[in-house]
Amino acid sequence: MPHFDPSSFVSRSAGLTLVLGAETAARETYAEQLAAATGARLARVIAGHASAASEVADLVAALEGTQPAARAVVPVPGDVDVTHVIGAASDGAGDATVVTVVDATSIISRLGRQTYLDRAAPEGPELVAEAAITVQHLEFAELVLVVDHERVPTGRLTRLTALLSHLNPTARIVLRGSTVVVPATRRGRTPYGDRPGWVRALNDEHDPVFTDPDVRTFRYEQPRPFHTGRLMHLLEGDLSGHRYGTLVRSAGFCRFATRPGRAALWEQVGSMITFDPLAADEASPELASTGQDLVFTGIRLHRAGLTAALDACVLSDRELLEGPGAWSRISDPLPRWVEA
Fold it and tell me: According to CATH, what is the number of the domain 6-190?
């Protein structure tokens, strides 16, 4: 069970605080209470509107123009692209504080949802998996505030806080009590892009504060490219079930034999998985020449079994020696990459 020390959260944070979370009522309530407790301005962005990032950028500019610097709290609707909002909030003198409010009774089911949300973005509306939005909110957070934890048995709650800590080892995980939790001002804050657990694991920096024997994260490295047909069979079969435990999140970099010379970003949460090609300016020579470098997080994961299953999906010795000409004839059921 995580220890809640109120004294570590009593200092008032200057600047902008973004409040995220899928549960609208919990997100709005906390934002209102935080603004009242800190004397900050409560500002809102329009739900489902692509101009949210520009609204936040204007707010940042207005805050920087005040003496002394003013504070603002912005609850961000779930159908707004938070990456653009965070980018706009970070264009000023300092980064915004990101707080994600999660409901202990529903967060696990949200990470496994198979539904999509019509989300507003500067480039136009886009369909995004709700599970992907949920995990993104968790991975970007500096503070994860858990509400309704009283309704969850102790064992499940311990496992939940460990899972949250594995998904974002840099975040403070706090169980909401009767008082308003105010994010503390901290020096040396971790950049947003370095907060996700899978990024930390790839950098050999994965050190979650809360642990549980059932919650596991491991890194899978394999120099050979995947045979796309066998990989798809695994994804649609044993990996989508519970043969190797409950896989909650996996991400990293991968390469397919049918698409040589191009690395892709592997992104999975729950039953949703995507493979997006890296742009030429994103892929370093080292990354372009690698095979698989992936991180898996889940509950009761069978590392040896899953590793063996993934190894069975890469090219065999014979297939590897046949070369790219033969690889191009391998069945490739994965969605085609559409170049921007």
Answer: 3.40.50.300
